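Final report, Chapter 2: Outcomes

The project's central promise was a pipeline that accepts a single protein chain and returns its three-dimensional structure in a standardized token representation, suitable for archiving and comparison. That pipeline is now operational. To close this chapter, we reproduce one record exactly as it appears in the project archive, with the input sequence first and the structure output second.
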Amino acid sequence: PAISMVDFKPTILSLMGIDNVGNDEGRDVSRLFLDEATAEGWRDTAFIRIGTNSESGWMGAFSRSYKLVVSPRAPASFFDLEVDPDELKNFINSPAYRGSIRKLARELAEYARLRKDPLWESSAIRADLDWAIGGKGDYTPVKRDGAPTGKATTPKKGNRIQNTPPSS
């Protein structure tokens, strides 16, 4: 299952039998550790956000198999973690992945709206998610906040895509 760092506090408190009175973003995933069967109704998507502005921020939705990343400064990326665990190939324009891209994009947009995430204010992120949710045709990045436009590309063999932009 996909879990993230924000899930640790509510989970540990739950395992200790302590009520969590905080307003945490994370989920209590203790049932995944305590029940041998996969938990019923578990949403296998984790959300990660780094930074809060167009200079260094990005956000993503991750499942066990896939990873969708959007940023104000870089074209969207979609990776199949089973086929390409090193994340060398961006599948954002692959028709075979449209359903998975739409699902993660819907969940990421919902997360950003509900959490009032500052990155949700980026016109580039909104355009990327709008395309991912309901757009037709190939993905073409819009002008990025302070960055040039360009087609979504896959690096040449040997060049690794860096998915965690440096934060300032």
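Archive annotation: The chain is about 25% helix and 10% strand.
This record, like all others produced under the grant, will remain available to the consortium after the project formally closes.
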